[in-house]
Each structure stands twice: as structure tokens, then as C-alpha cells.
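Renewal narrative, Specific Aim 1. Our central claim is that a sequence can be written position by position from structural information alone. The example that follows is taken directly from our test logs and has not been curated for this report. It begins with the C-alpha cells describing the chain, in the order in which they were read.
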């Protein structure tokens, strides 16, 4: 039962990460890290496939081994935070336009402080 739950969550995370490839502000790698976490508990072959993936395998392994985010990954995440915050300032009225700044600052600070590889 628990194995099936992990497998389901893994596939959902894999799907959300796949959507994140084409949707600019939806992250890909964090969902794939979650998928790898779930697959190791339900289907090690799928976890191995993720780790061997030519594009996403390296960031997943880097996160597992060192808790690190690449400089390019940090830059992309911080640019996405800045873009979404600027967009909200332009499109939303006050005080709603300030709401995205809080998670952007918290998330951006956390990402910035992670080890770099």
C-alpha cells in the first residue's frame, strides 16, 4: 500500500516537473528530486532512470550528495522570482502586488544561501 502511494506521488511529481519544462515559473528539478525520493522507495529502476537522465540527473545527484544548487540553477530561480515579483507589481493593485514579494524574498534568500557546486 505504501509502495503504491510512493509510486503515485513519484509519477505526479515527475509529471509536474515535466510541465515545468514548458511553463516558465513552475520548477522542474525540485519536482524531479521529489520523484527520485519517492521512486527509491517504490521502484528503484525509475529512480536510476532519473539519476542517469542527461539533463536532470546531475542536479538531483548534486542535491542528494551536498544539498547544493548549481550557480545556473540559482540564477534561473532568482530571475524567475524577480520576474514574477515585477509582473505582480505592474499587474496587481496595492496591497496585493506586494504579496509575491514575501515568498520571493524568503525563497530567494534560502536558495542564495545553499551551497554551490
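The sequence written for that structure reads:
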Amino acid at each position: 500500500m505504501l509502495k503504491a502511494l510512493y509510486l503515485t506521488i513519484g509519477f505526479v511529481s515527475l509529471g509536474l516537473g515535466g510541465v515545468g519544462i514548458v511553463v516558465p515559473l513552475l520548477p522542474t528539478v525540485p519536482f524531479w528530486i521529489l520523484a527520485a525520493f519517492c521512486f527509491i522507495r517504490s521502484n528503484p529502476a525509475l529512480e536510476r532512470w532519473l539519476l542517469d537522465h542527461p539533463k536532470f540527473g546531475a542536479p538531483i545527484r548534486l542535491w542528494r550528495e551536498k544539498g547544493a544548487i548549481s550557480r545556473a540553477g540559482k540564477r534561473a530561480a532568482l530571475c524567475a522570482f524577480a520576474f514574477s515579483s515585477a509582473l505582480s507589481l505592474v499587474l496587481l493593485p496595492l496591497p496585493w502586488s506586494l504579496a509575491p514579494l514575501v515568498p520571493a524574498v524568503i525563497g530567494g534568500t534560502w536558495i542564495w544561501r545553499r551551497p554551490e557546486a
